Amino acid sequence: MKPLPSDSTIEMKDAIGTVKSTAKSLSGGFAVAEAMRQTNPDVVACYPITPSTLVVEKFSELVANGEVDTEFVAVESEHSALSACLAATAAGVRSQTASSSQGLAYMWEVLYAVSGLRLPVVLHCANRALSAPINIHGDHTDTMGARDSGWIQLYAENPQEAYDNALAAVRIAEHPDVLLPVLGSQDGYTVTHSVERVDVLPDKEVKKFVGQYTPKSALLDIENPVTFGPLVSPKHAFELKLQGIEAMSRAEDVIDSIGEEFAFLTGRPLDSVELYRMEDAELVMVVIGSVAGTARVAIDRLRSDGTKAGLLKIRSYRPFPSTRICEVLGGKKAVAVLDRALSPGAPYSPLYTDICAALYSHGVILPLASFVHGIGGRDTYPKQIIEAFQRIEEKLKVGESMNQTEYLGIT
Amino acid sequence: MIRQHTVNDIKKCSMVEQNGLAEIRWHGRGGQGVVTAGEIMAETALDEGRYFQAFPEFGAERTGAPVRAYTRISDEPIDLHCPVSEPSVVVVLDPTLLPSIDVYHGLSNGGVVIINSPKSPSEIAPQQRLKNHLVATVDATSIAMNTLKRNIPNTAMLGGLLSATPIVGKDTCLNVIVRRLSMRFPQHIVEANKTAFEQAFSSVQL
To answer: Residues of A numbered 227-266 whose beta carbons fall under 8 angstroms of chain B's beta carbons: which are they?
Structure first.
């Protein structure tokens, strides 16, 4: 582990992971609501949509019971939900929202406004397929569509990570080097509705961890009047957008340092990527989201049969930790990328495209196979992951090209 | 034939936990408390310091529609995020599902089946197919009608299940039922559920 950042508020007397957590049985949705209760944001504006509903349902109950001080705005649409968050954060307070699928799609134009205005709003997303056909189950088409909107994107594998990300998101978004909105994602149903053991930090530790939000400039700070969202001519617009690019690239280090600070409290690392059995791995799968756990089970089985398999899980998709990815993938015999989204007409699905670009630009050239799974909530089992590994093993052996995307679990 | 569960019965179902992992599949209908039963098992595992997962199969959350749910319980953290395809325990909350759904599909060798029925296991379950399994029945609907005055057989089925195979502790489970139901229901309903659990626990047919 790298040394703690010098500005860390954590006292060294707290040994790593010794803050005593309480184990609770929570679904991914309720775990995020619990993190929101502990964060106690000033404003939460939501329009409920399945499967993010659990977050909104639980949090509005907390508001009604007086367990948080949050101003809860029950808006009439997702477009209004994010607009309310934009306005609240521009006014100078901490705001959050939650959504899924069509709801996120309806927020589209506001997504760009929030990131362009550099407002640290936090959005809790439950991944769900986009219509048509109408489908309430999980895939990543919704958030992958928002990947270019200037939001940081974190993906959770299980309810614990959804809770952890929900807390880390606040710090990352509000970090003075970043000031960008953060979208924390979890797979619809597979994580949102799965009740699992979640270690919850004590309220006072969370309060200390998230701290107070002090806006750099605020619309309601009448002593220091500012304008938000004026028209910008071609003379300055390009540079302003580039500032967003620079902030995103600074966010890489911030995500890792806040992850280390969090690990110091909980003992759970929150790195931008997570590795499993990678040291001596020859064949590697790159995944994102809840399938990571299933993949680890598959890799253990492959290992016991003599295949040197490993896993690279992407936790931070935006910013994309290209350098780190290239460091760990360099020298491997072959890599399989497992996407949970489609990009019709594109050469490949989004994650593959990113991995491919990262490797090529770093001079790492190796056989790179593309797999797509889980569209519209199709379940993925260890057996399918094992078969995918066997396919690339076989193709390597006979020297066959891997450039054709394969779809897992198709009947 | 109604009898108390014995040590030998527990031994018979020693295969319920494979590699320390118990995988339960619940079959029922919307409104029977299938999802809640799975979550009660999960919370019981939490109280026992174990790891767990409880999740329903979503799609048709209409009252009366067939519903299935899954629970995994383990001494180790659970990584799998897919439905249970080879359950070690199958719980059937509604016997009217038996003709239309293959509830025994994928049941692992040595696994346990518990069905809500007044009939004996040999009358209701395919004996040839389940010859390496422990089959139990419990009349959870009658118990629920007598105690709760409505057909919500989930707490009775939990009693029957833990009598047939003690995946989690009986007393821990009763505590969770009381704790969970007390948050939403008046005392007499909580008591009725406790009675349903106890009656089912002591009236399982093996």
So the answer is: none
